[in-house]
Amino acid sequence: MTGAGAGAPSVVACPNGPLIVRGDVEIRDERGELLDPHRRTVALCRCGASAIRPFCDGSHKLTGFRTVRPEREPAVVYDELTRLEPGPRGRR
Amino acid sequence: MTISAPVPVRTGERWPMRLPEPRGEVSGLVIERLRGDVASALDPAVAAAAVRRSADLLDDDDVQLALFLLYELHYGGLDGVDDALEWEPEVLAFRRELERGYEAALRALIPQPHATRDVPEALFALVEAADDGPGLSSWVETDATAEQVREVMVHRSIYTLKEADPHSWAIPRLHGRAKSALVEIQADEYGGGRPERLHAEIFAKTMRELDLDDRYGAYADHVPALVYASMNLMSLLGLQRRLRGAIAGHLAAYEMTSSIPCRAYANGFRRLGLGDEAADYFDEHVEADAVHEQLAARDLAGALADDEPDLADDILFGASACLTVDGRLWASVRAAFEAGGSALRKPLDEARP
């Protein structure tokens, strides 16, 4: 996902996630109204669950949206702790 | 959704922060030394001893405050403190003992993760695995009182009034795609050329909307040790080139756990009758961080792991450290709220003049 040149648009599909759009593009909503994306690089919803469509709000993680088949083996493994137990964890 | 009315950026009034009250021997010694009291030279053995006798370094008020103040010399500075102390060997030697202790405590607490396939996929799995308890954001969304929301802002203010700064230390230490991705994220954090859209500035505006003091460190005596542990983690990882992988991983985990909680925060603000101006900071982060999580996981962390494969474990360690320390901080705040109490060390109306 390297950046596009100045003005040249690029769209990159993220696995299990949104479309990342860079470059000089016009984004309009369903009524044809021009939208202000507020930033140079935007993420467009691909799962349909975003509350701020056409932009992504991270909802794909809550709905289990998949574009690639899950692997059987875990993506991450951990060393065993020898001294202490991990503290309580929570969300922000 | 954009509210871009010009906001006065009163940097000169907001920094440097005032020295807080000491919380024990080590922070007391640091404060005396920073004030210029030559009689209290910093002895690294004192720092090492404090680390050794600490039962829980993450939640150690004295050590975490001392470390925070020493790091602050690299950021906005401290009122009445000689700026030259930033690179004073005696000060650095003392800080190094605290840093060694903190890093050792983190390594003992956090199981080292390893990616079985690629780093971005491992990061998404790490974040999903850490999402295992009710968060503070869902409390704010449905239950928090207006006073608890003000407390949340106070807890966040130590980092967020200088939001993104600790990760910027990594810019000259990265190259190629990873550097480009980090700068792309940071440019957005810093408002894309519009000072009033600096994320730290939007946060300051939200503090003012809630009748809170937006000067840096105004609530330095109020916030608990875990606030400083969270801030110090970022400085620890950001200020050391050998830990550049870990600060990249920290940023990735931070951005990957932001969009959905920020939406809950914005909903909570509106439930309490707070308007768009007050919710602006969180609205902005729903959208911004949905972009940043992809950039940070794939273009920053993924590219860094491709370019420097030896850093893969550090990237995941930094991510786990972020999830562990911040998770513990926000879980403790939620627990205090659920119990009907305050998560601060003293009531908010006891702010300093």
From TrEMBL, chain A:
InterPro entries listed in its UniProt record: FeS-contain_CDGSH-typ, MitoNEET_CISD
Domain Iron-binding zinc finger CDGSH type as annotated: residue spans: 30-66
UniProt keyword annotation of Coiled coil present: no
Entry annotated with the keyword Metal-binding: yes
One cellular component (GO) term of this entry: cytoplasm
One MF term in the entry's GO annotations: metal ion binding
Keywords: 2Fe-2S, Iron, Iron-sulfur, Metal-binding
Record's protein name: CDGSH iron-sulfur domain-containing protein
